[in-house]
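note to self: dont lose this again. the chain is below, predicted strucutre after it. 293 aa total, dont forget to put it in the shared folder this time
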Amino acid sequence: MEKKNKYLILLILGTAFWGISFPVTKMSVGNNAPSVFLFYRFLLAAAAISIIFYKQLKNAKIHSIVAGIGLAMPLTFGIHFQTLGILKHPSASQCAFVAGMCVIIIPVLKTIFYKTTIESKIWFSATLALMGLAIISITAQFSVNIGDVYVLIGTIGFSYYMIQVEKFTKRNNIIETLVPMFVTAALIMFIISIFTSSSEWLPKNNNFWTGIFYCSIFSTAFMYSVSNMSQKYITAEKVAIIYLFEPVFAAIASYFILDENLTWRLLIGGSLIMVATFITEANVKSFVSNKAL
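---
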């Protein structure tokens, strides 16, 4: 099997891990500070990657270490706010759908920071996705749930992180950035936890440690390694589409783990977001040309 196909399968598996992590995080944190949960998550992920990629990391270049520290800032910002959103939102599956908007947000951020002209289909897709978000998020009182706001803010941070990874991966070994990135993220969460009154460093809740193990190994160490390395073999457009499986897996996992219902709001709004992301990545001109032939 070609490496490209192997990474394709691993990416789909990784998006399942990501999707399942939404209800797992909601169940694991409980009354503890989310920053403590993230501290252990990043720390254990850094340890796992250090063992798996020891040969490559021992010769890591200084610029890779510096880049890893820089990548930790938007990554930590994004995951922290997404975690807050998951804990404050009554539905973990809805949070996952909102987080899936990163494929819409990324081209918008590229326009802002790199002055790239946005195609008409991007504006259409963004509007369609926002309609889907409104259906999911707006309650009977026509107010947006605070959890949706947190997740959306975190998604913007994570989208910026993905743009920076794309830039670095083109000419460098992204694996060398993983450990310094996760260690820096753990340090940031440690500092936040010190100043959080609800922090409990050694909780007796078994669900907490089960969630730490799952999120650290599968949705952090595994998925970030695979997603970054896959860029050598799979185009960014295809990777972005594969990421759309995440909210689907999150909704299914929430149904089985948290007994959440698959409501019409979730189904209709989520469908609009997914359609919007497919339109964003579709090559309309090629499709029209092939039809003409």
